[in-house]
Each structure stands twice: as C-alpha cells, then as structure tokens.
Amino acid sequence: MQENIKYDESNIQVLEGLEAVRKRPGMYIGSTSSRGLHHLVYEIMDNSIDEALAGYCTKITIIINKDNSITNIDNGRGIPVGIHPQMGIPTVEVVHTILHAGGKFDGKGYKVSGGLHGVGASVVNALSEYMIVEVFRDGKIYRQRYERGKVVTGLEVVGQTDVTGTKTTFLPDREIFETIEFDYEVLLARFRELAFLNKGLTIVLRDERPEVPVEKELHYEGGIVSFVEYMDRNKSPLHDPIYYTGEKDGSFVEIAMQYNKDSYVENIHSYANNISTAEGGTHLTGFKTAITKVLNDYARKYNIIKENEKNLLGEDVREGLTAIISVKLPEPQFEGQTKTKLGNSEIRTLVENVISEKFESYLEENPSIARVILDKCLASSRAREAARKARELTRRKSVLESTTLPGKLADCTEKDPSLCEIFIVEGDSAGGSAKQGRDRRFQAILPLWGKMLNVEKSRVDKVYGNEKLAPVITALGTSISDDFDISKLRYHKIIIMADADVDGAHIRTLLLTFFYRYMYPLVENGHVYIAQPPLYKIAHGKEEVYAYDDRELAKIFEEKGWKKADCTVQRYKGLGEMNPEQLWETTMNPETRVILRVELEDAVAADEIFTVLMGEKVEPRKEFIQTYAKNVRNLDI
Fold first, then answer.
1. What is the pLDDT of residue 312?
2. CB 53 within 8 A of CB 274
3. Which of 68, 84, 207, 352 is 20 to 30 A from residue 329's alpha carbon, by CA?
C-alpha cells in the first residue's frame, strides 16, 4: 500500500484558528465525562493509525503514566517540523495549536484517513494541562511544550536519532474533565479492535499506575479473520471463517464472516477507515442485500427451497452470523459529525459485487457447508413464521397492540412519556412497598415474580409466548425486534429494581439481556437504569443513615465517629424489608436516590459479555468468573 508520496510543510493546510474549544469542549469530544476523556487518547492515536494506513507505521505504544498522563509513541514519518508556508511558524506547532490544520485535506499527505476533521491534536492540546511533543525526523529529535493549548517553548532540537516517528505526552485538564482517571479495560478494548482492523500493526498498551505495571501487546496477522474468531470464541462455529477482499478506484473492502450454531441473533460490525459505523451505511446495506440474494439463489438452484415456498428474508440468513465489514476509502462521506453512518453509494456496489461473486463461489465449492448454513437459515425462517403467528395471536388477545395494560401495573397519571418512569420491581412484596411509596404522578410500578426467559438461548417465537416477558413488552408499548417502535415508548426512564442478592442479580441480567437483544434502542438511547437500594440502615440514637455498600458503611462510622456497639445496623436482605417511606427516601426519590444508567460504550464487548454470561457454554462463564472475581466491588449491589 506504501507509495513514495511527498509529505512536508506544503501538505498542511490551515482552515481556521483554535477558538472556544475550552469553553465548549463537548462540541469537539462529545462530553467532559469519562467518555470524552478517553476520546482524547483516540484522537492522538488516530494520527498514528493514519501513518499505519499510509504504510509508514508498524508499531504504536500507548502508556498510561502514574499521574494519568498519556504517552503515545509511533514509528511513522514524524510530523513535519519546517516553517509552514502559510503561517510562518513550525508546522508541528500549526498542527497542535490551530483547529482544522492537518495533512488530510489535500488528499496527498494521506490517501486514506480516519481523522477527517483535523481537530484531533489541537483539541487535545487545548484540553490538556500540558502537552509535550517530540518528533524524530531527519536524524534529529525536536521538542515543543504547550500548556492549555498555548506554546510554552519554541521548537527545540534536543538530540540526535536514527529513527523516525512522533511521541506525544499530555495530561488532561482537571478544570475541564469530571475525572482524569483512565480505564485500562476501555482503552484495551478499542486498541484490540484497531489491531484487528489493521493487519500486521502492533499496538502496545502499558499501564504504569499499578505497583506492578501491566502491559498488553496486540498484534493480529489474521486481521479481521482473527477478529471474527475472537468474537465467536465462546460459540460453536459451523465452519471456518470466510474471508473476501475487493478493490476499485482506490477504495478497498475486506469482509470476514462465520456462522455459529448456538446464537439466535446476528453479530455484524462495520467500519470505515477504522471508524466504527454503529449506524451502518452503504457498506452494511450492500453486504446484507448480497448475502440474502446469494443464499436464496443457491437454495432455489438446488431445490432446497421448493417452488411453492417463500424466499428467506434478511433476518433469516443473518441469524447466528458473525461478520466484520471493513472499508477503506479516500473520501468517506459520513452522516453527521459523529461519523456513525457511511453514505458513499459506490461502496454499496463494491461490497455487493464482492459478496455476490465470492460467496456464491464458496457455496458451490463447499456444498456440505452450504447445506449446514441453509439448514440454520431455514430453521430461523420457520421460527420467524411461528413468531408471526404468536404475535398475531397475542395481538388478538389484546396483549401487544391494545390500551389494555398488565393487571399488576400501577400506572402513573402523567401522560408525557419524557416525564414518566417505570420501576420494574422483583417480587410482589417489594412491588407493594413501591406502589405505596412512589409519587404516582410520574412513577409507574410493574412487579415481576419468578425468573423470566433467558432470551440468549431462545428464538423470538419463544419470547412472544413468555408470560413473564409479556407484561414488560405491553407496559413499555414499543413491541420488540423488527416491530420495535421507540416513538411508542410510554416511559423514558425504565428502572430495574431488584434485591441485592444472587437472585436479584440474575433477574437484572435476564432483563438486560432481553433489552439488549430485542429492544436495543432503549439501551442505545439511555432509557434503561438500575436502581441502587441501600444495603444497610444505621441507627444512632434518633439519627438514621443509609449505606449502599460495605465501604460506605465503614466511611460513615469513621466520619461520624460512631462505634458499632452504640449503633443498630440493619442489613437489608431484600426490597420487601423496607417500608414504603424508606423505599421512597433511599431508592425512588429523584432528589436523593442513586440510579445507574446502562451505557454500552462498546457493542463488541457488550455482545461478548452477554454471550459469556447467558449463552450455552459453561466453560467461558467459569473462566470469566475466575478472571474477574478478584476485581469485584459492590457484589451485593
């Protein structure tokens, strides 16, 4: 892929100055929460990845230093250091102090790039207490320091070198961010994804904060084939991964796919220039259209689908399919600043042609595998038809499309869904306390009893007929799966309230699995929450306080100077032990409660966790528990 392309000061074009980033950081990095904090690392790393895409960088090292500063080192060409022809200052300074300055606008510095807007380095600089950039280029080491976006030192030569590359160290600004504590696992998940997507690239993540530093090297010669194998490692594949590539007019597509026998949902992820296109786009549309047509044509040709039978639908052919679609193109057209949907029409044609030609040949050359895949698709089709009949039956019974709400639901009086919340409560006794303690104007209560269906092990037809899930589906009003309509959501806060024990944790997980698999937009749009009931009530004389875990209990005794012998400590075994006033005060009152919003930063990781915890295989679940047991906090919560 490497070409001898000129890359110097003339490639760096300036569009506008660096303004207002510190005043409105959310416009540039999304938020000042933990998510925005980690986004800083990705912005700097994007520049190194672009060097890798251009064929000049083979290794990137990211270090989390003891003070939570980040160091990013690559062995690319090094940012140009000569005087910029437009600006009259060193080019490396232009890149780090002027918004929309970069080598990605003229189409010459980089053929393919993930960082489109040229805001990365300058925005990170503006939002950092300090940034130190070292460039290894032309046999010299150049160094410059900035503080909160402003130049502190001129560009200095501080040594000689026989390597090339760029080293950037920055400390996020405590005045800007809610926290500057980086999460090693969050970074590792993203870097693993990037290592899969860039075959042969080595990414090293090192955390210097623990007493014994932790280091992980990520390198996958198999690229996205290894990615598919990784995602399916806890499943039972029906065949080895299938891999295709195609190229046209400077655009390149690679696809890896594999069917497994024990999954009833699709697990397809698409990327454009290493950016996760969570909302899909033309590359994903082309892929879905083509595999549906190829499998139907093959099934018709060999009379697997008879003349009087209907074609397989897209959802039938994607059941149990794990796939990665990665495209790299010179001029990606993303819908919106968030870059989550690809719009290039020519990419759809490219992907369709690759699948149509190569998947068809694969099926012809591997008839036994073709038959196994089609058996899976046909089973899905039969289940879908059964689900349709079950859906129509339940609709006739006024369960899904009716104003008739579940008998146990205590609804609220407010009619504006954005002001309403529903507590899905474990057990009738807790449900009774919640009904008495709630504010009936905007809080609805739906008690559940017993454990519901584990949807990870069931097809959609079983979901419609499940008596434990039907009240949830009816109360929320959105229906599920392909019929899901978020505009019909009756409550914008859905709060799962279960006991602080093993059974409660299981019910929470079953509900979350159901929401993730069949009502995904609820999770995606931040409508799902987990209540945090207290674990202890401490009474000292007439004063009563609550503690949500053992750590908080110890902190209360320490801060108040109380001795345990002088206090009455009640440990709540279940929500039903609280009277309505206590439940309102501790868990339901918006002014005083603690609730956790369920967020899915990384869909790949979320999918994997649900498969491990709720899937058919026991061994991965056992391994997961053994690996993470020592890191557990708030087990009772």
1. 94
2. yes
3. 84
Determine which one of 426, 585, 608, 636 is catalytic: 426
What's the domain range around 334?
A: 224-390
Catalytic choice (129, 439, 503, 552): 503
pLDDT at 19: 57
Assessment of whether the complete model's pTM goes beyond 0.85: no
Determine whether 501 is an active site residue.
yes
Q: Is 124 inside any structural domain? A: yes
pLDDT, mean over the chain:
84
- Residue ranges of alpha helices (H) inside 302-427 are 314-318, 345-365, 367-396
pLDDT of residue 90: 92
What are the structure tokens assigned to 583, written together? Answer: 């439940």
Instruction: Verify that 211 and 343 share a domain, yes or no.
Output: no
Average pLDDT over residues 460-482: 82
Look up 315 and say whether it is catalytic. Answer: no
Cα 74 to Cα 165, 418, 615: the distances in Å are: 5, 47, 39
Of the candidates 43, 319, 352, 499, the residue annotated as catalytic is 499
Domain end position, chosen among 177, 192, 219: 219
The full 3-state SS of 263-290, as one line of letters, equals CCCCEEEEEECCEECCCCEHHHHHHHHH
Does residue 503 have an active-site annotation? yes
DSSP string, 186-197: HHHHHHHHHHHH
Whether residue 402 is predicted with pLDDT greater than 50 in this model: the reply is no
What is the spatial distance between Cα 399 and Cα 395, in angstroms, rounded to a whole number?
6
- CA pair distance 335, 333, nearest whole angstrom: 7
Name the more confident of 634 and 214.
214
> Are residues 191 and 295 part of one domain?
no
| Whether residues 460 and 316 fall in one domain | no
Q: Give the model's confidence band at 629: pLDDT under 50 very low, under 70 low, under 90 confident, else very high.
A: very low
Q: Is 413 exposed, middle or buried (0-12, 13-18, 19+ CB in 10 A)?
A: exposed
Exposed/middle/buried for residue 4 (C-beta within 10 Å: 0-12, 13-18, 19+):
exposed
**pLDDT score recorded for residue 258:** 96
Higher pLDDT, 135 or 24: 135
Quick check: 242 pLDDT over 70?
yes
